[in-house]
Input
Amino acid sequence: MPDQPTTVTAAVIIIGDEILSGRTKDQNLGFLAEALNEVGVQLRECRVVADVETEIVAAVNELRRRFDYVFTTGGIGPTHDDITADSIGAAFGLKVDYNPAAVAILEGHYAHTGAELNQSRMRMARTPAGAALVENPVSKAPGFRVENVYVMAGIPAICQAMFHSLKHELVGGDPVHSVAIAVHLAEGTLAKGLGALQDKYPDVSMGSYPFYRDGRFGASIVARSQAPDRLAAAADDIRRLMRDLDGEPIEQDG
Amino acid sequence: MPDQPTTVTAAVIIIGDEILSGRTKDQNLGFLAEALNEVGVQLRECRVVADVETEIVAAVNELRRRFDYVFTTGGIGPTHDDITADSIGAAFGLKVDYNPAAVAILEGHYAHTGAELNQSRMRMARTPAGAALVENPVSKAPGFRVENVYVMAGIPAICQAMFHSLKHELVGGDPVHSVAIAVHLAEGTLAKGLGALQDKYPDVSMGSYPFYRDGRFGASIVARSQAPDRLAAAADDIRRLMRDLDGEPIEQDG
Output
């Protein structure tokens, strides 16, 4: 028997009234889903919560116990609605105060830019006691980590930069490989055979995603597995099923 | 004293491994956030969960008790990975079986198209006992409602069409009005005055969203309230604050 694959999981918490009001379209979930997968971490749940401390605390405390890592985005700027640091402190029962290393970063940055490091900007140096900082190469004000919870900015460019700063710390598991094959057949035509293949390959997860393009119906079948050989065998069977139904398999993402 | 505003709330549950894997970028959250707001329903939380029955059941049962409405997207097609109907049935403790009205819709549709109404396609007529149907003008297979939980398709065009089919049933509250004003000032410059205005107007929620465009930093201040007069007064104060700091207010969304 081969070794069981190692699975490392994560959840994302997007903190932001602006996403829930529809004013801003989230861009961080899609980025994090892909970027985590690349380092062997499987995103298993995402929550979008309002800028309300009790909601943030409840989400953090549930998800940090259920998953190996939790990543939050949003709410770490200088304004009154930036309450993530206090919420993370409350979730862990830790005092939140000025973090000397973060203060030093901000002092250096504002001395350089000439802008005033006022009390509002100093809010960005507050973290729960003992937090490790996450470098922000874009605008300097750092993110931070408490235990398995990483706290990042909401602005996509800064969130992405922070993730690249911290990803070397993550201990990933066996990566999930995937194969996507499209076909111009209706899902209802493929469904029976596909269900039988799912039963044949319990260690390969098969998803079917219908589409309608250029006046034709079709489905994209995505197979995912931590076992490359099983994935390859399942993909061959999926292509054979499509051809048996008079469909021509179209390989997706190269 | 004016009457307290009526607030009606909702949560969205996006069911889909393909969103969590990063392969598909969700488009339904942004649509639903805006569309719900237009009918006086405030979206308060969104969860993206995997195609796993226990996860779906847990999310549905928590959120249907906390919010006035819950909307799910995804997992109602004909393939083995479409497990939403069974999961909703499990959440409510209801038997899931062929819904006669849904069967009639599918029979009419497939008689018309000439495609076979096979056992896989018949899966799309299964609902929890007593569910009310949600019309699908795009591809006919209906969504459904059990109590305060609406179940819709994941394909954006179908999700949107189903929402338009059901929205007349929703009983909204007082709408949330909003004003957005941008300025080429750093958040750290605005923060102190904005915090004071938030304290002055507790019934107006003020959010600050920094941006970096065309080589200049700025912030978009979004004020939201169910009380139009208070919102207008708060917006005037925000514009005055910006001018006092040598910033020119830029009105957003007309």
